[in-house]
Structures are given as C-alpha cells and as structure tokens.
Amino acid sequence: xxxxxxPQIISLSILAGLYCLSCVDGVSPRxxxxxxxxxxxxxxxxxxxYSENGxxxxxxxxxxxxxxxxxxxxxxxxxxxxxxxxxxxxxECLECCSSDLCNNQGCGQPGFPAALTRGPVCFDCQxxxxxxxxxxxxVCETNQECYLQKEVEFGDVFYATSCINKHACxxxxxxxxxRRSVHCSHCCQTDLCNNDCGASFSSxxxxxxxxxxxxxxxxxxxxxxxxxxxxxxxxxxxxxxxGSEYAYILxxxxxxxxxxxTSSPHLEHAIRSNVDSIVNFTSFINIPFPxxxxxxxxxxxxxxxLLKISEISTIIIFDAFYKHSNDGTLIxxxxxxxxxxxxxxxxxxxxxxxxxxxxKTDVHIKFNISYNAxxxxxxxxxxTGETCSISLEKFETIQIDHENGDLSGTxxxxxxxxxxxxxxxxxxxxxxxxxxxxxxxxxxxxxxNEYIIPSFYKNVDTLSQIISPVGNIVNIxxxxxxxxxxxxxxxxxxxxxxxxLTSIVKADHPVQVIGFAIGSDTNDPYMTVIPGIRHYxxxxxxxxxENYTDNYLCVIIPSQSLGNLKINKLPVNDFTTxxxxxxxxxxxxxxxxxxxxxxxxxxxxxxxxxxxGLLVYGHKEYDGYGYAGNFVLP
Length: 634
Known about the structure:
There is one protein chain. By secondary structure, the protein is mainly beta. It has four helices and 45 strands. Among the domains are: 95 residues, CD59, CATH 2.10.60; 95 residues, CD59; 219 residues. The protein is 3% helix and 45% strand. Strand 9 and strand 10 form a beta hairpin. It is globular, with a radius of gyration of 25 Å.
C-alpha cells in the first residue's frame, strides 16, 4: 500500500524558542547529539530513572514550566509532553533550566567541557532544506569552528552544517567573488551559530572548490576522506607475514608538508621507537611501520596510531608485507569518526578491529554470527544478539575474529567516536590461494541510499554485500532485472555481479555497500567499500602501489562530464580503457570507465566541478588490492 502524504509546511519564523538536548535513555545528558527547538513557552528538562537493567539513564527534551515545577514522580507527564511513551513512572531526578542546551549538565551530571578546552557546539547535518531545521549537534575540537554551506544540485537547494578546521576558513572575502551571497558559505565561532544565513558571522569563509571562481587554482579542503588528522591500525594478516606495513600520505599541495606520528605511551618501547616521529615531505610520502604493530586477537592493545599532517591530505594504508596476501584501504579523517558502525566481512577467518580515539571509550558489540555459531571473548561465549561491553583507553585496540562464521551485521556502538576496520585474515572464494582483505568501515551516519556498483575487472565474479542499519526496502538492478528485498535492522544481503556487468542499488533508507573481488586463476580476493552517489567528489589524489602487474582506476561519472575529467592533467581518452558501460540512475546517465594505469601518484579532477566515484585496484600473481577514493559524505 502506498500512502501519499502532503508535504509538511513549517513556518521558520516561529522557531524562536530554546534549543534543548532531546534524547531518551541516554548514559549521560551531555552525550545526547539530538536537539529540539522548543516552543516559546517551554523550557529544557533532564530526568533520570532506572532502566530495566538497573542502570541510571537520562531523558532530555522540552517541557512546560508547570510540569517541571510539579516535582518528582512526574515522568509520565514529562514524557507525554515530549512525545515518548512512558514506561517508567518514578523519576530519581527531574530538573529544568531555561537557556540553550542547558540540560547538558542536568541532574548533577558533568556537562560539556569548559568553553576554553573545546570548540563550539555546532549544528551537524549533511543535508537539510533549511539550516534552522537541523536537529543534530556536535562538540567541535579546539582547532575547529562551525560552518554553514548552501548547496545547489539539480536545481534543488539544501544546506550542510558541521565542524571545520579553522585554517580551512580564510578572512579573504575576495575568493568567493560575486558567488558568495549565493552560496552562503560561512564559518562562525560560538555555540549553535551555524543555522542562519542571515546571521552576523565572523569574517571567515570556507574555502572549498565547489564555490571557487574559475580563476582560482586552490584544491578542495576537508571534503569527505580528505583531512589533516587520521587514526590508523593494522589488522592481522597471514601468520607468515613479517615485513613492513605502509601508510601512503598524499598532500593536496605540491610544497613542503610534514606529518607527526604519535602512538600510545603504553605501546612497547621497542615498537614505539620505530613509530613516533615527525617527517617532512613534498607532495607525497610512503611511511613504513613495523610488522609487530599488527593487532592480535581478543586482547586490548595500545596499537592505534595518530597521524597529524600540516596540510589537507589523503591517506591509504597497505599491509603489503607478505607476497601472496595483501590489501589496502582508504583512511577517513578523525572528524568523520562516529559512534555507530556495522561490520561487513565474509565467512571464514572473518575479523574486525576497533581503534579508540578517546580515553574512557565504552564500546558495545552486539554480535551477529552466521551458522548459529558462538564466539569466545574474555572467557565468555557470545551468540547472535548478545552484547559484549569493553572499555578502551585512548589509542587502545581490540581485534575480534571467527574462524568459520561470518560476523557481518555485528553492530558496534560507543559513547565516543572510534574507528572500525573489517575484513578477513585470509579468504579464498575459489580453488585458488586465500588472500587478506581489509577496509576501514564508514560510520552509519555516512551511508548513502543510491549506489552504482561496477564489477571488478579480471575477476571471476564480484560479490556485493548490502547492510542496513534500519528496516529497509532495497531495489537491486542488474541489467534488465530488478529484485526487491526487505531487510530488517542490521540484516545483510549478498549478491553476485557477473563480469562486464554493473548493478544499481537504491534503498528507502541509507545502507552500506561493500564489494568483494572474488579473484581468478591469476589473482586473489580483495575488498573495498563502494561509494554511493552522494560520496562522489570532484577531486582525488591517490597512489597506485608498486610491484603489481596490472592496476586500474574505475571512474563512475555523469556522462556529460566525462570529457571534463582530467587525470594528471590528461584527458581520459589518453588512457587505455579496458571496460566501459553506461548506466541510468535517477534519471541521469553515468559513464563507467575502467582504465589501465601503471604505479604512481594520480590526481583526478573535473574542470566543471562535477563529482564522480573512484575505485582503485590491482593484481599480481596470487594477490590483489582495492580501495575507494572516498566513501563518506562530503
């Protein structure tokens, strides 16, 4: 049954009340990242009560002063006003206050860090029809400000808000020219300042390629996977692996740059002495890391490493330390880390690893294990649906594996942002050799709902996996055939794309899509996150590693912009095309080109600033690697 709903018309002029944190059953008020704009008569409340598990939890939101003044044991009334079904009737605490976000420290709980030790609290929405409709917030780092950017695509106007590094803003207003007022791109420095294009912003503006005039040569800053701060870890490979692991750092400027590499003070001294350093480089550098930095199974270890770079950069890591079992992955910057992830992998030597970015990070792992198998961790056996809770300190890691089962759909959450990597230790889909597979996994909040999936060239087949964070309806089109599937929350679906075919995936709600190259009689499997259409960027700087016999760049680009794509300043037709195809999605025609390239550094950009998707992969005897140019929202 299809229900047609009339669009809701909201008068923005009435949104003049307080902004209050608005969450249910949170571990602490200050960890709520959803806000509600209250009516003029309402105030902010904090209410605490015992959960069914006997734990004190907190509700926050808007309430009337009369309800607040009625005292304790009024949770039913508060939650009725708040629009949530009341399932407890006795409050341990009920407090109200009357300033923006004041309930971050309600009921005696610690609030946000002092203003001098943090950045501003900013609205944090990737796409809203009006900035005042954003209902998500984020506490920025001290080196960040709030930003607001108006964007226009296909004639539709929408707004993006979040945190941005301070020097991605510039006091020069000339860089925007006459387009500045059209694009409404601003930075500001106070709490909740980035929700009004007509407000008095600081005299700073965001420098991004999407809003530069044609005469400017500045490359895009802080878009998607491009950033200045990255958290990396290395997952376990074949037991025979004993060589170096590598991080490829590609600065978006050609001048001198530097990277500061910092590990945990608790890391073994013999390892740390080969990790911590400051390295100067020009344009790009390949930095080796010792093999004993690799995570081991089922133990907490201080093995995450932080890389801070002086200029906006892209990072790809390769655990290329065994001749027949390697893979690589794009690394997303720390500003894109979040608190909810879904594991994606395959059966047999399935594994994932967690890297903590903050101290006192409380991680909760709700397992999904195929074949009704169990998993032993810290002396306890876990089955599907059971949750393991672990507390990690800054830069601590834990890697979890299952020798036979598939851990896909395992839901990992925490009270603070962290990094998740997933893959297999050594997996074979065919009769040929097994190969290590790894990819950093994007947070749930970075998913898209529309994907174009090309098959991997020179592979027997391409296995694709769709995972949904919520109940969902997904349409999968391959050629002339469309299949509709229904997924429950955290459920996944695998399907195969034959050689020389592509697939279109469209979902009612955002999903995660992973591609697995099956391998062939000459190369072994590898995996990568597949970028959604909203992940497409107009600029990439990537590295193709040495020692692979054939390497490929696969671009997915609106057909009208194919002629505007330059690779190292050369047109696409200057490269050997091994596969090409056109696909229709949402009324637009996309060209898919797989190009054969040699090893080296490549800059890909469109002169008309139209975004495109990018996959990078390659093969050698009994080995392969693959990664995406970007898989988080710009």
